[in-house]
Amino acid sequence: MLTHVAIEKLLVKRTDREFLAYITAINLTLDNLIVLSEAFLHPDELRYFMSLRVPRAQHSYLLGRYAAKMAVGAYINNPVFTDIRIYPGVFNQPILQLQNVRNVQLSIAHSGEMGIAIVFPEDHPMGVDVEIISREKSETIKQIITEKELGRLFLLNVDTDIALTILWTIKEALSKIMRTGLMTPFQLYEVADVEYKDEVAIGYFTNFPQYKSLSWISDHHAWSIVLPKNSQVDFAAINHFRQTLNSVSSDALLSNAQPILSY
Hints:
The chain is an alpha+beta fold. Helix content is 35%, strand content 30%. The protein contains 9 helices and 12 strands. The chain has a 5-stranded antiparallel β-sheet, sandwiched between helices. A 5-stranded antiparallel β-sheet has the order 7-11-10-9-8, sandwiched between helices. Strands 3-4 form a two-stranded antiparallel ribbon. Helix 1 (30-40) crosses helix 3 and helix 4 (135-141) crosses helix 7. The longest helix is centred in the N-terminal third of the chain and has 21 residues, at 55-75.
């Protein structure tokens, strides 16, 4: 059955301990999200949404919030979604506010009708990004990559547009961990090397060797997660999530979507 949401549990292992994260991706039209909005937006979020006048901004906002609430709902047992407030920090990074919940953070991204979010403990930083693959976008991306990266695009994918889009999502995901966004030249986030494992590209950074990226292509989008280099993620979970993304569809009936708002 087609569905509009994919949720995956990620167990992240280090030599001394383990961390739990949940990643969620959604695909919903603006109209569908508006129907659901009062069931998942905090009152402050709803007021802000009502102030938005541009449909693209409305869609981006609801995609991010819905994906994030789904991830928080999986991470925390039985939350009331309208009690969860996600607001921008001083660098526009998403901040999670929920009574009796501390030291939990999240990363949010969206592109077109796709939204993605990951929820994780504060002591294990992570970032995500998604971008639709397009020739127009890839021409823009060419302007922000280094000569070294240009010479290594083939390591990401033989298709230049795909390789450039993956590279963009890697840099975006890292910038979210750094909390710099577009305020820092993206050349600083240079990808030094890439290897593949189980159809997932693993990237390593020139200037941030303490981090790595996990990237893949699904449903004509590039997807990336950035996390500490020495953290090990179960690739079976990553691949299950990647494969599930192919079935995520905005054609899902709202009657199927409604029950997902409760855990």
